Amino acid sequence: MLASRVTTVLLATAIAALLVALAAGALRPEPVRATDTTALLVTDRPGLLVCVASLDPAVPRGELHRRVRDGLTRVAGHPDFAAAGLARRSVEVHEGCDSAPTVERPEFRPGDRLGAPHAVDRPSRYRLLVFAAPAARTAALFGGRPAAVTAHEVLCANGTCPVVTSAAYLAPAALADDALLDRTLTEGVGLRPTEPRNP
Amino acid sequence: MRTNTILLVVLLGLSTVLLAPPAEAHHPTGWYLASMRSLPQTEQYCVEDRYTSAAHSYVLNEVRNTLIVENTAWNWDLKRGGKVDFRTVYTPCRDLNSGTVPTRNEVEIEYHVEDTITTAPAACGGTSCAAPAGPSWAGPLGRTEYTWYNVWLRGSLIKAGGDTRRHVVNHETGHVLGLRDGDGSCPSSIMHPSYYGCPGNGNPAWPTALDHETVNRLIDGV
Question: ipTM for the complex?
Answer without folding.
Answer: 0.84
